[in-house]
């Protein structure tokens, strides 16, 4: 079983000043060695602060934080400097030195760690090969695309072979295609080098593509934490439901249902996809089994953690008693939602 590499126990971070801000509010959780752990939340939720506590960029106000066996909440700045090479970090704005070449940027932490020139050159070559930028060694950051710059950031963060990589909105400045390339590099960092990744994002798409588990933060608090599929399939907190809805768009809005109701007769039923081959087969034939006609009028299915997730909305026509019987079957095997035509906007017309 994987061991926790990061453990928060009742951790608080308060910024004192003219406006006192409780940026991290009583967070207790563990992150296992080797996992890709996502942290999601709206602006100001406390994500960056939480992650900056891990490498001691911000000191903990109270509570206990243990990182790779070190109680960072109790270390002095000098002691923290000894721990930091074990923790790499990448940033939204890449934070490269514009006046240095790509190779010099990657070599920078090795200089700080007092590696000699020969070892440095060999390590930089290895790192640039890993991120696919060997041919850019002598270029300057301004000559690179955003995705290439972030790959340099990753190479630099990995220079001292850290066990943990912190990624703060590392794809937020990138387009979707480039985002995918950077996330693929991070996946290799995790799979091939065994590095634990803690990734902050405000995009559920990034979480579902990369992460094993996800933490949702709001007002400094850890409001929901779970396996990515579980959090998507059954979001509990309102803030989580908003993130999932923004990504999925599989469920019609009331306006869309109103328009669909005006042109499609029958009862309107949304049926979630259930990731279980047997149950799913039962559910997809339920209307036909009851002699009903069911037309798909809305829906969406995506893959999360290599499992299908989403829902389909049907207009179901046939005898009411048969529809009720079909819905009773669905209720027993994973649920459904029926939309009442009377409550929909502009829904006069069919029933
Ligand atoms: N150095 C600081 N001094 C005072 N307040 C701070 C400091 N750093 C962060 N804060 C405050 O702490 C709260 C959490 O900020 P934080 O940057 O951790 O949130 P976030 O979820 O990462 O937001 P974003 O997505 O905008 O980066 C905010 O109210 C912020 O203004």
UniProtKB/TrEMBL annotation:
InterPro entries recorded: AAA+_ATPase, ABC_transporter-like_ATP-bd, ABC_transporter-like_CS, ACT-like_dom_sf, MetN_ABC, MetN_ABC_transporter-like, NIL_domain, P-loop_NTPase
Superkingdom in the source lineage: Bacteria
Keyword Phosphoprotein: no
Residues annotated as domain ABC transporter: 6-244
Alphabetical keyword list: Amino-acid transport, ATP-binding, Cell membrane, Membrane, Nucleotide-binding, Translocase, Transport
GO MF annotation: an example: ATP binding
Name of protein: Methionine ABC transporter ATP-binding protein
Organism, scientific name: Propioniciclava soli
Lineage: Bacteria, Bacillati, Actinomycetota, Actinomycetes, Propionibacteriales
């Amino acid at each position: 079983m994987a061991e926790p590499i990061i453990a928060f126990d009742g951790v608080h971070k308060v910024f004192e000043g003219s406006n006192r801000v409780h940026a991290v509010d009583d967070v207790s959780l563990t992150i296992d060695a080797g996992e890709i752990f996502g942290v999601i939340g709206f602006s100001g939720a406390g994500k960056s602060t939480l992650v900056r506590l891990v490498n001691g960029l911000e000191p903990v106000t109270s509570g206990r934080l243990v990182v790779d066996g070190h109680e960072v909440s109790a270390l002095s700045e000098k002691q923290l400097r000894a721990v930091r090479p074990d923790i790499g970090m990448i940033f939204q704005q890449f934070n490269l030195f514009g006046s240095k070449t790509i190779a010099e940027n990657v070599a920078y932490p090795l200089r700080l760690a007092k590696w000699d020139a020969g070892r440095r050159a060999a390590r930089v070559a290895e790192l640039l090969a890993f991120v696919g930028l060997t041919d850019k060694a002598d270029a300057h950051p301004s000559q690179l695309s955003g995705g290439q710059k972030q790959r340099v950031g990753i190479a630099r963060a990995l220079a001292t072979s850290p066990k943990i990589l912190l990624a703060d909105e590392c794809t937020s400045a990138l387009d979707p295609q480039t985002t995918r390339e950077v996330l693929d590099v991070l996946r290799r960092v995790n799979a091939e080098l065994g590095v634990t990744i803690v990734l902050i994002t405000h995009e559920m798409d990034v979480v579902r593509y990369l992460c094993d588990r996800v933490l949702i933060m709001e007002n400094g608090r850890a409001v929901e934490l779970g396996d990515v599929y579980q959090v998507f399939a059954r979001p509990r907190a309102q803030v989580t439901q908003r993130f999932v809805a923004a990504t999925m768009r599989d469920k019609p809005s009331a306006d869309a249902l109103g328009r669909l109701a005006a042109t499609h007769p029958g009862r309107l039923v949304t049926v979630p996809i259930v990731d279980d081959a047997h149950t799913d087969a039962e559910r997809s034939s339920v209307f036909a089994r009851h002699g009903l006609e069911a037309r798909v009028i809305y829906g969406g299915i995506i893959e999360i953690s290599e499992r299908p997730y989403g829902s389909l909305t049907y207009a179901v026509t046939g005898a009411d008693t048969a529809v009720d019987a079909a819905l009773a079957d669905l209720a027993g095997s994973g649920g459904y939602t029926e939309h009442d035509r009377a409550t929909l906007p502009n829904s006069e017309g069919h029933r």
